[in-house]
Amino acid sequence: MVKVVVCGAAGGIGQPLSLLLKQSELISHLALYDIVNAAGVAADLSHINTASKVTGHVGKDSLAEALQGAHTVVIPAGVPRKPGMTRDDLFKVNAGIVRDLAEACAQYCPRAFILVISNPVNSTVPIVCEVLKKANVFDPKRVFGVTTLDVVRSSTFVHQIKPQFEPHVNRITVIGGHSGATIVPILSQIKQLSFSAEEIKALTQRIQFGGDEVVKAKDGAGSATLSMAYAGARFTNSLLEASVRGTRGLIESTYVHLAGNPGAESNLRSTGLEYFAQDVELGPEGVTNVQTLPNLSSEEQRLVQVAIGELKGNIAKGIGFVANGA
Ligand code: NAI
Fold this sequence. Notes:
Layout: E1 3-7, H1 14-21, E2 29-34, H2 38-45, E3 53-58, H3 63-67, E4 72-75, H4 91-108, E5 113-116, H5 121-134, E6 143-145, H6 148-161, E7 174-176, E8 183-185, H7 197-208, H8 210-218, H9 226-245, E9 251-257, H10 264-268, E10 275-283, E11 286-290, H11 298-324
Parallel strand pairs: 1-2, 1-4, 2-3, 4-5, 5-6
Antiparallel strand pairs: 7-8, 9-10, 10-11
Helix pairs in contact: 1-9, 4-5, 5-11, 6-7
1,4-dihydronicotinamide adenine dinucleotide binds at residues 7-8, 10-14, 33-36, 76-81, 90, 94, 97, 117-119, 121, 146, 149, 178, 222-225, 228.
């Protein structure tokens, strides 16, 4: 029995993400939780002819029932950006939502894998980890910040200027975090193509701020939902392939707690950072091994330094929120 819970399932991301997860043959029970409309979304999806059971759970009183027995909890609950907002502007609202959901996970499904989509991911992942630490149920191998959309965008944007680069086949490592300057795509990894310095600069800028293109185009109606659902389903499916089916060698970039994760500490020991996005190999217990950072160009090294400075503030904000009970 593999139960996957989506918290925020009635939202712009939650609905298409749940639709994609309904197609997974590795999921036997899809539990959809939201403070509104989850029952309708569940009834709708339950008519799709795949074997998984779908249940809807609306409101705080049904959260325990939604989470009990969960193998994996995916969290896209919270408010999205409007034009002119940064992801950090969402902190005030989303920090409390994510903290409360993490507390419920600690109580009702302490061994579940937790996949955090709610922004600002750079701070919401530390919030989840601090809550789990407080409850004495923290396992760094089991909490993931979902940064897959940055990876997906990287392949797409490279393909758009170099059509011979197959976006579906070629994966680009993205390290750092998940907001603006903290997103560092490692374009120097692409050995089969050559790029001018201008191309690298423009691509990096577009990948870092790709989310803004969608926020602007939606003009007040939110941020990326469909591409995010695709990216969230891809990460969830990779984790299920590795943890349920036992497939080896599956690697995804994701934002994780460094201490306690195999391979992670040596990577960035000198920086004093507690969290960082990088390639990890997934396995039965979540993170099997954090991959060694690839060789970086001098420009990528500079971008990492900028990212580290910003990440430290984002991480401290998340940790402080749980410590001070704000
Ligand atoms: P949305 O507003 O369409 O949906 C959010 C859903 O969360 C709503 O259905 C709402 O009722 C629900 N919700 C609010 N409080 C809740 C609670 N306490 N418990 C359960 N559900 C709750 O927003 P959208 O577009 O789906 O975005 C969700 C989040 O994902 C935002 O924080 C957004 O910034 C983030 N996001 C993350 C990305 C990433 O790459 N990690 C990319 C795009 C968006």
